[in-house]
Fold this sequence. Notes:
The complex is a heterodimer of chains A (305) and B (555). With 305 residues, chain A is α/β, with parallel strands linked by helices. Chain A has helices spanning 7-20, 70-74, 113-130, 148-160, 189-199, 214-218, 241-266, 279-290, and strands at 39-47, 53-58, 80-88, 91-96, 134-137, 178-183, 205-212, 225-228, 235-238, 269-274. In chain A, the strands form three sheets. A five-stranded parallel beta sheet of chain A has the order 5-4-6-7-10. Chain A has a three-stranded antiparallel beta sheet with strand order 1-3-2. In chain A, α1 (7-20) packs across α4 (148-160). The longest helix of chain A is centred in the last third of the chain and has 26 residues, at 241-266. By secondary structure, chain B is of the alpha/beta class. Chain B contains twelve helices and 26 strands. In chain B, α1 (21-30) packs antiparallel against α3 and α4 runs antiparallel to α5. Chain B is elongated and about 150 Å long. At the A-B interface, β8, β9 and α7 of A face β3 and α2 of B. β8 (225-228) of chain A pairs parallel with β3 (36-39) of chain B.
Amino acid sequence: MSPVTAPDTFQLRQRAENLASALPPMLVAAERIANAVIHGLHGRRRSGPGEDFWQYRSYSFGDSVQSIDWRKSSRSDRVLVRENEWAASHTIWLWASQAPGMAFHSHLADTTKRDRAVLLALALAVLATKAGERVGAIGSPHRPGHTGATLNRMAEWYASADGGPALPPGTPLPRYSAAVLVGDFLEPLDEITRRFSTLAANDVAGHVVQVLDPAEETLPYQGRTEFLEFAGAGRLMAGRAESLRERYQARLSEQREGLRDLARRLGWSFTVHSTGRPPQQVLLALYGLLVARRTHAGPQPGLGA
Amino acid sequence: MLGLGTLTFATPLALGALALLPVIWWLLRFNPPRPHAVRFPPFRLLLDLISREEQPDRTPWWLLLLRLTLVTLVILAVARPLLVHDEATGLTSERLLIVVDDGWAAARQWPERERMLNQYIDAAARAGAPVALAGTAPRAQPAGLQFQPAAETRERAAAFVPRALETDRLALLDRLQSELGGSGLQVVWLSDGLDSTDAIAFAEGLQELAGGASVQVVQTSPADLGLAVGPPSLEDGDVHVTIRRPSTEASAAALVRILASNGRSLAERPITFAAGANTAEEAFSLPLELRNEAARLEIAEERTAASVHLFDDLWRRKSVGLVSGASQELDQPLLSPLYYVSRALEPTSELREADDGGLGELLEQNLSMLVVADVGIIAREERERVESWVDGGGVLVRFAGPRLAGGNDDLVPVELRRGDRTLGSALAWEQPQPLAPFPETSPFAGLEIDDTVEVRRQVLAEPTPISTTRCGPAWPTAPRSSPRNGAATACSCWCMSPPMPNGRTCRCRASSWRCSTASSNWRRPRGWPQAKPPAHRPVPNRPGCRARVSTASAC
Lengths: 305, 555
């Protein structure tokens, strides 16, 4: 793995760090933690490798002598072994859409959707690694990790990746992990449903963030306008673009409602973000969703417009 | 050339293309504008909304208007518009005659006139009309009137300058009628705004030349006409200045000043015209010394010749020395020979009488004239001084009397017969005679002769058979070159005596005192008889015969 050298990679990570610096480390709330040996901060409520005391039990054959709590044992007749709570880490899978359409940015916003999506993903990754959680990028060849090197690799991969699928790959994620999916999600709802269902198969808690340009929300064009497909060769002539506006907005909210429905069914959250607004807002919202206390058991209520 | 006020078009045919505007409007209206292309990620969402059959869109009205305006401007530009801010419009390619008043009155606004002239020449150049220029000021040798292309006329126009002369329009009209005479002229008259009683006749003549067509007259507005200063008069020692304005609309006040010959201002005073008055008068009171220095009277900021009056010698009081040989007659002043002389000269000159110092001292006082009344023989040393003074340009006037008749020196133009001739006495053979009228050419012309004046006594010149000549009834002109230059180039005889009655002429005689050579410069003055005067004959250069001008002569 090559060290991070590309300036844009560094810059990307730097921006993510800056964005994340306003928030405390993000310990992701997880109802179930995957059965992984990787050390983390999530207590497993069972004995195992960890730092917090869990229980004393009688020495049995096979226990290491070093594990005997001699002070405790001296008070009783039994030889007691001190066991700590098994603290494991949680894994967050991040996906920022790299589709060609994400490179769009209109006169109403000063950044592209892809920029904003990657920035959000990296900021979440920074926050999560601070709390010792493991982060991984869906679709990248790198394994998840919780170190600075992981962040570097992730930033590098995002910076170098150009073009990609408009939807996360339809491969199941590891069990009990969390997934944050950032993209514009303008694909047909059927396709999105299929992909999301696969992802959610292994009890994965998902958070969907739809990033849209202000122009995509409002259709601010006027007069005779020719709309070109972003990646393809399709073209569409609108004699009066302003006459489309209301129908388009209705169609967009229809798509959005479908997404929200889908998220609700999967127990996921759904958030909408416009690139015309600062990224802190949506980051704060995501933070709140991800660190929600366990007391709010069950599906997280979706935030969104 | 099509004219719309000050806007003209060089190629008006191109304006016909304006008729195409509705067609262009119709075409533009149904040709949709180029669409605004947008790469749009939610393309798929739009796909459901837009039917594939798109309808042609109308061009926005403002875009249509803009394009039509552009087309209109292009058509106008092709028609080559000329924005000409001048009056010289409406010229055709016919021959153009420009008559310019270039007399004194035109000088005041000459730059404006030149500009107008150039405008007309430019307009003629645009119209391709040949141009002829004519000035109304009289000329010794009028230039020919030929029509030339406007470009060549421009040089001639630049050479036009106002002259300090009165315009003679009718003379020019005669020339124009005889040289052009034809018809179909375009006539422009740049008038100076003054009607010297001939403006109407001139305008009618011009109209005839134009073949009945109208004549463009560019006239100075009455408010812009210049002021004139009349000849000043001297009353009670004050210089009375009269200024005139051509119309009551002209400026109501003028600053009049009197300048010395070196440009120093001696007096300066504003003169205001009374309302409705065309003349105004003001008296300048100047000390004698300043008045003697006055060389120029002018209206400030006027540029015409009429606004300047030059003071001539008339305005200077000359110092005149008076000498008489009759000191013993002081107790009878009315009989003094100088009595009438001083009475006559007093108003205009400063009189200096010889006191004990005698003639010599008198001559040192820069006299303009020396009057010697009834002195027979001037003492020898004094005579030499008088001679040299006369040589230097002084004027010596001798009045005859009993003493002069009794014997004279040689400071007289002719040799005089001794003893006066008395008329009307018992032994005389003639009656006293009245004076004959002065001829036109005499310096005394115009003097009214009092009938009571009778010639009773005469001093006669000695008739000399050799060189007697008729000194005509005229006043011979003064020598052409000033005696002060040192060399007189002609000899002439000033007959100062009153003309004799009965048509008799006086005789004067060339003697050793009067004549010189240089006959080639001698010109027969007007009115002289055909016979060559003796002065014309070369007189041998005798030693002692200096070139001289006789100053006074009694016949």
